[in-house]
Amino acid sequence: MRTDSKRRRRSLVAISAVLGGVLVLSACDGGGDDPKGAGEATAKSQAEVDAAAAKDASKAKIVITPKDGATNIALNEGTTVAVTDGTLTQVELKTSEGAAVTGKIAADGKTWKPDAALKRSTKYALSATAKDTEGKEAHENASFTTLSPENTFVGSFVPEADQTVGVGMPVSITFNKPIKDKKAVQAAINVSSSSGQEVVGHWFGEQRLDFRPEEYWKANSTVTLKLALQGVQGAPGIAGVQNKTVNFKIGRSQVSTVDAKTKKMTVTRDGAVLKTIPISAGSPANPTYNGQMVISEKFKETRMNGATVGFTDGDGKGEYDIKDVPHAMRLSNSGTFIHGNYWGPDSVFGSANTSHGCVGLNDKQGANDPSQPAAWFFDNSLIGDVVTVVNSPDKTIKPENGLNGWNLSWADWKAGSAA
Questions:
Q1: Which CATH class is domain 152-252+407-415?
Q2: Model pTM?
Q3: Under a CB-based contact definition with an 8 Å cutoff, are residues 200 and 212 in contact?
Q4: What CA–CA distance (Å, rounded) separates 380 from 361?
């Protein structure tokens, strides 16, 4: 699921913003390409493990329209969910602020659509679950943004109002149109913390502006975002339409360190080691990025298809297509996740790096066993928690690839401000 290593034959499109841009929802696999001494795993090639996982997956195929990361989506008839070789069991559509959108699954269980038109200039997240004739579940997730008038711009932002997040969570604003007058737009946005920390904005291109302090947010503080964009000219003939103030809470301080060399993750909370978990990181051919990565999304189960990130076989199909990856948490836009792995042998965790670049934790299929390491980590993690990878042979992740601006020095961060 990696994007830029010259060691690989795959190539991907450039990474865009977390909101309103292309998110590679599918990620990496775990299992195979095992070095000697990995026990049971040495008998299994990457292809064998991938094939076994795909064979055991649900036959149901879910298609969400629009595609993940789409923008300027029509308010009427632009959003549907369909399934083949199965029936839909649950569909949820919510705005970025958490408001649920009602909809109906058709009597035959094959399609779903919302009951009414969607809101203009709004970011939505959609999740769907289906079962095949054997009762095996498939999952699909997507996010998209609806259209706005041509002469206006809006900013979608994370985190949500009143959300409790981890200490690494930046305020990330993605504008639905390119901003030419960055100074004017940034001057109309203020981010402050009850901790008194200095907070500075940094532009990633013309459509994304992130805010953070020099160090992680202070635990148990409150952060306030004030948007005063009404009438602000973001570009010639394009004005802002938002005046809004939101608060969110910083929870306890949790930073987890994944050591790709020792194949262990140390979870530290409020300065004390909470737990040490055996992991399996990226294989030597597909190592995991180094660096500080922020959890930006959580899915109890989701689909991971290698084709979406350039891992394809000779027929153009994904090297893996696992429709029920448990306890998946996004670490990058390009497809890096930390997630549960039920298809790899138990022996690889803590002893071999076997994935396509993600960090895998031992788990059970169905995501219903709370005793599994992946389930424990999922249940004990917040959006905004930090996962730092060290001792991997790969490069440090780019700061714009996900909510990962912490990989810039404070001087470089401030240099990207237009204020």
A1: mainly beta
A2: 0.81
A3: yes
A4: 14
Q: Strand ranges (DSSP E) for 155-203?
A: 155-158, 164-165, 171-175, 189-193, 199-203
How confident is the prediction along the chain (419 residues), in pLDDT tens digits per residue? 443 433 333 332 222 333 333 344 445 633 333 333 333 343 345 555 655 666 678 999 999 999 998 888 989 888 999 999 999 999 999 998 889 999 999 999 999 999 999 998 899 999 999 999 999 999 999 999 898 888 999 999 999 999 999 999 999 999 999 999 999 999 999 999 999 999 999 999 999 999 999 999 999 999 999 999 999 999 999 999 999 999 999 999 999 999 999 999 999 999 999 999 999 999 999 999 999 999 999 999 999 885 555 555 556 555 668 999 999 999 999 999 999 999 999 999 999 999 989 999 999 999 999 999 999 999 999 999 999 999 999 999 999 999 999 999 999 999 999 99
Domain ranges of the chain: 152-252+407-415, 253-404
Distances (CA, A) of 198 to 173, 211, 214, 414: 18, 10, 7, 11
CATH pick for 253-404 out of 3.60.10.10, 3.40.50.2300, 2.40.440.10, 3.90.1260.10? 2.40.440.10
Catalytically active residues are 339, 358
